[in-house]
Amino acid sequence: MKKTIYAVVIGLLMILSYVAGWRHTARHATASTTARRVLYWVDPMHPDYKSDHPGIAPDCGMKLEPVYAEPATSSMAAGVPLPAGTVGIDTDKQQLFGIHVAPVERSGAAPVIRVVGRVVPEDTRVYRINSGSEGFVRETYNDSVGVLVKKDQKLAAYYGPEFLAVASGFLAATERVPGATGKDGSRTVPFPGSLAKQGVSSLQGYSDRLRNLGMSDVQIKQMADNRQLPESIDVVAPVDGFILARNIAPGEHFGHATEFYRIADLSRVWILADIFGSEAQYFRPGAMARVTLSDRGKTFMARVSNVLPQVDPSTRTLKLRLEADNPQFALRPDMFVDVELTAPVTGGLTVPLDALIDSGRERRVFVERSSGVFEPREVQTGWRFGDRVQIVHGLAEGERVVAAGTFLVDSESRLKSAAQTPSKQPPRENNPAKPKSERGLAAGGGEVKHPAPYLASNPPERRP
């Protein structure tokens, strides 16, 4: 008897426990359903399309996504109206999606533009030594690439069959006109009489022909002084500079117009840097810039020469050219340097460049109204340098804007704005009771046929 009573009591307790648990679960489910109540379903590719039940989007074939009823934020609960597109994102989701905010700062100093430049020789200071005839190289003298040479330094000697006849004529002309050659071998001293004039003219012509063959003024003067034919033509350096290219070797045969050497005077160089079209207006000719060699810790001053008009088709940038003196030849060709230029603009309110959404027609940022609530706001912008952009109108100092994950917040704001706007397209209908012509494309059928316009324009004939 006692065992039966115990069994009945235990059974009643189990039933009561089950009923209590079921009520608690039902209340929790009801609360969850209320908190996450589905308002409607939208097409993920076209948020304007709405439906009152789940299904497949008719245009892209993707599954419709539900739009839930969100709980009111603190600002809404307080009765403060929020602009359209305001979104609420809790802290956990912000950390998950990488959304960060940054304050609106006031910049008092003028911004500094920093670009990377490349050192190149000034093209007006690059000299090419070419041959004037065919011949072969006898020997070369300390002419390796990169060697610093002095003006009139002998680099090579070559033989050419054409220069013997011209040199003989030059010596004969100097004998007929004594004292006609100057210090450099090219200047002439006029003499009275027609014979003297003809002799001077002939001497000048032979001197020019020797220069065309590649003989220097120094060697022409030596030949005029000692009255002897040289065995070869000397190739000398035209200026103090570095050998950039060497294309000959001892014993090598060369043809007409062969380039022997390329020598650059690096006492003054150019610096080329890539800049955007929006920055070109600040690099005016004559502006001074600071050039720094980061690996050596040296600093130079350079002057803006010009902004070249050509646009790089791959990077869509312009070439900035600067001129700089090169003491001790610290700047070498193809060396990279850091260029800094202070832009001639005033300071103002600035935000990170990633905080700005620029659609072409409007520019806006997302301002943090309260914790997790972001309001879209249109702004007017000014200059842009580096990772900062100036805000002329629309923000106040100290406000906080979304600086990372801006496009995610913008997408959420657009979805919410589309949900708040009345739908331009009626929801899909899959009512089989309606004919196919009435359901149309929304029901997955064929084209809708409308014979009414034809009947209106062509009424049937009336018969008596």
Q: How would you describe the overall organization of this protein?
A:
Helix content is 25%, strand content 32%. It folds into 5 domains: 2-68; 86-107 and 347-420, Beta Barrel (conserved putative lor/sdh protein from methanococcus maripaludis s2 fold), CATH 2.40.420; 112-122 and 266-342, Efflux pump adaptor protein, beta barrel domain (Elongation Factor Tu (Ef-tu), domain 3); 124-261, no CATH class; 429-464, no CATH class. The strands form 7 sheets. Strands 7-16-19-18-17-20 form a 6-stranded antiparallel beta barrel. Strands 4-24-23-22 form a 4-stranded antiparallel sheet, covered by helices on one side. Strands 6-21-26-25 form a 4-stranded antiparallel sheet, with no helix packed on it. It is elongated, with a radius of gyration of 44 Å. The chain is α+β, with helices and mostly antiparallel strands. Helix 4 packs antiparallel against helix 5 (194-212).
